[in-house]
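subagent[fold] <- orchestrator: predict structure for attached chain, return tokens only, no commentary.
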Amino acid sequence: MSKAFELIQAQSQTPTSARVLVLDTLLNAPLPLSHPEIQKRIVEPIDRVTIYRVLDWLSAQGFVHSVISPDKTRRFKTNTQPSQHQHAHFECTKCGQVYCLDKVDDAIAQSLPERFTANNVHLSISGICANCQP
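subagent[fold] -> orchestrator:
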């Protein structure tokens, strides 16, 4: 049984083959993936529209979150905890890779005024990643 199957079932949801395939693909990806990147990695035949629907469902269930990069590409990454997405993203302006920055949120949360609570953080940072540095 795959980890994706177990995660979906643990949330009392139906682990359809398409949901499991897409979530497994994202769980095994070190970086956020776009729809075309997900489609290329899935070896079993699955309709592109089904992938869009599954991504929307996974987002609604809190299994994944998405970030839209400056080039308007939507990329998806699994959440470490379902229904929790509070971190920043870094996009390399050279290679276009998007990285999740979990530690930035701690600094943001600590900088809020007293009795303020952040429910969602949408922060994007762009620059040059370590792999593209000269």
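orchestrator: received. Logging for downstream: Residues 18 and 35 are 14 Å apart (CA to CA). The two ends are 44 Å apart (CA to CA).
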